[in-house]
Amino acid sequence: MPDQLSKEEVEALREMAANRGCRLVRSRRRKPGGDFGRLGLADLKSGKEVFGFGRKGLEATPEEIESFLRGSTVSTWKQSLAAAGKGGRARAAPESKATLPSKAPAGPKRPPKPARVPADPPALRIRPADAVDGEAIAPLLAGLGFSAMADELADRIGRLSRMGEAVLVARQGDSLVGCLTWHVVPVLHRPQPVGRITLLVVAEQARRSGIGRALVEAAEAKLRQRGCGLVEVTSNIRLRAAHAFYRRLGFERTSYRFAKPLSPSGG
What we know:
Shape: globular
Low-confidence stretches: 72-78, 80-101
Largest sheet: 5 strands, mixed
């Protein structure tokens, strides 16, 4: 497993599984042979085997785990849990087999039902935030552990907009599903200003659908227009899934960030 996935990628899969009520199970083998490098998923509460378990151990590859979590969560997961509850085991990437009908009098064949065409998701729109967006942004920030009232956020949105660094929001249909803030830093040691992404948050139900990438690309366009030659981003050391996300967008870890709270003047 260590030869196939980095620690950050393992943590990203583990977090993705936890968000869907599952626990990522890794092979205990550390040398090639048996189920080395294979994975499985178990129900987070009951511990029942959900996906990737076979008679000889774990069977699923990292790609199969990610595909299952992304696209099969609603249908395949429920079927797998039902099978696990009856004592069966959910196997990795099972092939569906048509069962033969029992003997019954032949009747007229019914025409097959037309396949359902999934509805396209609402179009994604990235735009500068308005003061009224503070009410929808507040719960997104609360999910990161930051508490702010809607009227406070409305004031901050206005101040950032007047500075020429408008808050960017992502809207999908009638829902605000993401928020990003950015800042231009003039520096002495570089010929061009440095751009910084100071906040990026996407609603939990809308993650892993390209919204974060779209917000980052919009911020990069703004920073280029302001003459920045470099873009930086800070991310909490505990958010390993976020670190993997930024690496996929071409960011590299180049330094450590140190923080120190300041007391009020005269304190």
